[in-house]
Amino acid sequence: MARDGARPAYDPAGHDVALRAALQDLRTGRWMAMRGLLDSTRAWWQWTQRTQVLAAAAAGTDVVRAWLAEEPFSVPATVMHARVAVERALRAHRENHRRTHELWIEAWDASQSATRTAPHDPVPWVCLLALAQLDHKQSWEEHRARPPEPLLPSGPWGLLAEADKRDPYNREAYHRMLQFVYARGTGERLAEAVGYTHWAAGTAPMGSALHVLPLYVRVERYRRVGGRDAALDLHWVAEDATREAQRALHAWFEHTTAPERSLLDLNHLAHALWGALQFPEAARVFDALGPYYTPLPWAYRTADAGDASQAMEVFLQARSRSRAAARGSGRHP
After folding, report:
1. E strands, the chain, in order
2. For the whole model, what pTM was predicted?
3. Domain boundaries in the chain?
C-alpha cells in the first residue's frame, strides 16, 4: 500500500511485472521478450490488455514489423501487427494527419487478416471496433447494424458480437463501442452513451469490468459542461452518481483480484467514490492502486487537463481525504 503523501507513478504496465519487462525490451528495439510474454499469456482478458499496451509502445517503432518479417507465420506477430496499425490510424485521426484515411485502410486490412489467422481471438474484432469510430457518419454498412435493443443506437453491433462470442464481456470491446457512440455525428451522443453503458452494465455478470462503464460517461458529462465549478460537485453526490459508484464497487471491485483490475477502472472508481463522499470505500480502492495512478479522470478536476502534475495533486488530495476519513471511522489501518 502506498503511504499517505507518497507520490504515485503512471505506468501503463501497472501491477503486471512481466509486461513491464517486455516493454523495457521493446523500447530498446527487441521483440523476443514480447514474443515470450504473449506465448505465455492464456486468459483473453490479459491477452487483450497486454497486446493493447504493447501496441501503444510499439506504434512509433518498427519492432513488430521486424518480428513479423522474421516469423511471418506467427499468430501473435500477426495480431500485434494489426494492433500497431490500428494504434497508428487512431493517432493520425486525433492529429488530423493527412494520411489518416490511408492508415485507416491499412489497419482495416491488417485486422481482417488477423481475424482469419487467429479465428478464436477477440482482439482482431476489438481492432475493427476501434476503427469504427473513424467512420463517424456510419458510411460503412457494418457500422450501422441494428442494435440488440430498440433504445440503443445503430452501430457496429456485429463486430461487438464477434468479440463477445470469443471473450464474453471483453472490457476493451465495450469501451471501443462507447468511443464509437461518442463519435457519432448526432446531438444525442451523451444520452445514447448513458443508455449504452447502463445496458452493458445491466447485462454483465458479477466481476465484469463493464460495471465501471457508467462512471466513464459521468466523467465525460462533467468534462463537457466545463468541470471545476463548485456547483457541479452535485454531479458526483447525486443519488444516481452514488448508486453507479456503489454498483461498480460491489459488482466489480469486490469480485475481482488485483491482476484483473485495470488501473484506469480503479482510478475511475476511486474518483467516483471520493466525489460521492464515500470516503472509506474510496480508501479501499486507493489501497488497491498501490504505487500507481492514471492522470484521468483526475485531470478533469484541474484548470489544465493537459497538466499531469495538477492531476496528481488532485489524486493525492483525494487519497489523503479518503484515508483520513476511513481511519476516523475505524475502517482503515
Report:
1. none
2. 0.94
3. 17-203
